[in-house]
């Protein structure tokens, strides 16, 4: 997987595409073709390589196919190769952000999308996501606690205080979990309205025993501060989940 990522990053046109998505996420193929001096087919080819490497994800919204920057692989490269050698120089790599989009004519357009492949069954992913004893191993030492019924409340508990809270909006174990989300213990969050986190869990189409986990954060137009925290935090949570389920070890991360 790392080989694919490094290969994808080696091409300047592909790096340009990542820069474009970093500046404004959720773009169509036509929008990405405008700044590049190449054919539509050429841009499609580069986007396919980036998607195969996991550096971008795509989602269909109506008739449009939207492209999103996926920060998880870059976070993993940072943890594996960069942080122990050049922490100050590489600080920016840990905070790849997708900027807030203006109003569009596409309803329910996803905003921030992160995806990771984990060598585990969907049922194991679901258990890790809903079992407080396991959640605390990768979610900044916090446990997610709930009755896990639709419309049931949940909380992110650090052992000393509640960090976040929300409601279970929808669930289809072990395939999908939709939560409203609001931070309660961070300064500057008082005026943020609840946003939405959607977890999509599906077996990999080609790799047996591998599950794709996609996290979509949206409906945060009135929660800009929350969006900034989750833009940085979700890739770390996903990396931590992968490490825990595949090795039984925990990432060395601080409190949320």
UniProtKB/TrEMBL annotation:
DNA-binding in keyword set: yes
Keywords: DNA-binding
Gene3D superfamilies to which the protein is assigned, alphabetical: 3.30.530.20, Winged helix-like DNA-binding domain superfamily/Winged helix DNA-binding domain
Entry-linked Pfam families: AHSA1, HTH_20
HTH arsR-type domain sequence ranges: 1-89
Secretion signal span: none
Keyword DNA-binding in annotation: yes
Domain of life: Bacteria
Family membership: Belongs to the AHA1 family.
UniProt name for this protein: Metalloregulator ArsR/SmtB family transcription factor
Species in which this protein is naturally found: Paenibacillus thailandensis
